[in-house]
TrEMBL record:
Segments crossing the lipid bilayer: none
Gene name of this polypeptide: FAAH_1
Domain of life: Eukaryota
Keywords carried by this UniProt record: Hydrolase
Protein name: Fatty acid amide hydrolase
Coiled-coil ranges from the UniProt annotation: none
Record carries keyword Translocase: no
GO terms, molecular function: fatty acid amide hydrolase activity
Keyword Hydrolase: yes
Disordered: annotated span: 1-23
């Protein structure tokens, strides 16, 4: 396989620097957050102070970045020898993805292969599955579904999924399924456009906003899933504009892997602190620019977001062009280092925890006012930022459950795997191996069963 825009393989060096300094971002919640959000959105000088306090300007003096060509988009495209982009076909997937786990495996979850087998046997139809899930994700029911807060309002587009399920059921009835994914349900994050659905982007729905209208087109990845017969059940809730990792939005094991034949090697990725700062600052800058563009010519362009988001957008709007270039120069360095790792260890899957935290404890007032805690947010993104910054495929799989700091029951913890550009299928095979590690399901796990 060859690629377009594959980074040159170059091992990055650890830059010399002073002692590690703890982040000094203030944590704001409750009524104080409500006041601070309003003030910060009105005072550019305070926005600039918070930007500097977060360390977002600390990269401009790194001599090691001099002469590095910045990469603004981490796009690496696998191509055939004739320079045509490789378009994976959902109707011609690797046979390993059709393999089902043992029926008596404890903690077993339904996979696309299970749905495929159930439809093939006639034990259940795609329409029956879609109707069962529809009753769980639909908002505004009485009594309310305990799962509906994971999904956003479809504003009357609910029947689209049911109609797609009817068509899939008919294909199965006639013995003409499109492939492994025909009839398999899935959800789409609320900032991705799907035809006839509203992309709220985590914002409170306001019909007068021009960008909160039903989408006219479906983005390419979702369209390819739908063309393969997969059924989009609805859109998943997200943090407002995706500008934090708490999920608080009042608008809406290596030894085991060795036994499976994996070889464990250690790798080094230098300058992680600087890379994480660059990632966070670049994301906030992009969010501020995009939201301001959506609102249009309005001096009060932050009026549509909540107080926590006002602080984040205010900070992101302060990024000078000089620093933005440095962030993307660092992206180049990081992508070249990842290319070096993939060249040194062909086929490597890079593993890390999904997050160093066991969930995000609730505090009084969070659900009424929101929360802004940048230190915890950056810590929460300690591992996941890497794939986002370099554009490599990655996924997270549950590997166990632990006791939370508060509340009853247990919370899932995940392991994240990242692979080379264009190697998505090997990640799916890894996830199948990893999920076998789980040995129990939790009380609130939602599962619409069907015969084996």
């Amino acid at each position: 396989m060859s690629f377009v825009d594959y980074p040159k393989a170059h091992q990055a060096e650890q830059w010399s620097k002073g002692p590690e300094v703890d982040d000094k971002n203030p944590a704001l919640r409750g009524p104080l957050l409500a006041v601070a959000g309003t003030i910060v959105s009105k005072l550019p000088a305070l926005q600039k102070f918070l930007w500097s306090n977060a360390g977002f300007g600390s990269l401009r003096d790194y001599v090691a970045l001099s002469g590095v060509i910045p990469r603004f988009v981490p796009l690496v495209i696998p191509v055939e020898n004739n320079d045509q982009a490789i378009i994976p076909s959902a109707t011609n997937l690797d046979s390993v993805l059709y393999e089902r786990a043992a029926a008596d495996l404890i903690g077993r979850y339904h996979t696309a292969a299970d749905y495929h087998n159930a439809y093939k046997s006639g034990n259940v139809t795609p329409l029956q599955v879609a109707e069962a899930l529809h009753s769980l994700v639909l908002r505004g029911q009485d009594p309310r579904s305990k799962y509906d807060n994971a999904w956003v309002d479809s504003h009357g587009a609910d029947n689209i999924a049911l109609e797609a399920a009817r068509q899939s059921t008919e294909r199965w009835k006639q013995g003409r399924p499109l492939g492994l994914l025909d009839g398999v349900p899935f959800g789409v994050k609320d900032d991705l456009d799907v035809k006839d659905y509203v992309s709220h982007m985590g914002l409170k729905y306001q019909s007068n906003l021009s960008f909160q209208k039903p989408a006219e087109e479906t983005i390419h990845p979702v369209r390819k899933l739908q063309e393969a017969g997969a059924i989009m059940i609805g859109k998943n809730a997200m943090h407002e504009l995706g500008c934090d990792t708490t999920g608080c939005n009042f608008n809406n094991g290596l030894d085991y892997l060795k036994t499976l034949g994996y070889e464990v090697v250690e790798i080094t990725i230098p300058n992680l602190k600087e890379c994480q700062l660059a990632h966070g600052a670049a994301c906030l800058t992009e969010m501020a620019e995009q939201h301001r563009s959506r609102i249009g010519k309005d001096s009060n362009w932050m009026k549509t977001v909540n107080n926590a988001t006002k602080i984040m957008l205010g900070v992101g709007s302060c990024t000078p062009g000089l620093d933005l270039i440095k962030y993307h120069q660092l992206r180049t360095v990081l992508m070249e280092h990842m290319a070096y790792i993939f060249k040194t260890y062909p086929g490597i899957i890079i593993l890390s925890p999904t997050s160093p935290q066991i969930g995000w404890p609730r505090n009084q007032g969070d659900e009424a006012y929101g929360v802004n805690d940048a230190n915890t947010s950056l810590r929460n993104m300690m591992y996941i930022f890497l794939a986002n910054m370099v554009g490599c495929p990655a996924l997270t799989a549950p590997i166990g459950f632990v006791n939370p700091e508060q509340g009853e029951g247990q919370l899932p913890i995940g392991m994240m795997a990242m692979n080379e550009w264009g190697a998505e299928e090997s990640l799916l095979a890894w996830a199948a191996d990893t999920e076998r590690y789980l040995n129990e399901k939790q009380d609130k796990w939602c599962e619409q069963g069907f015969g084996s």
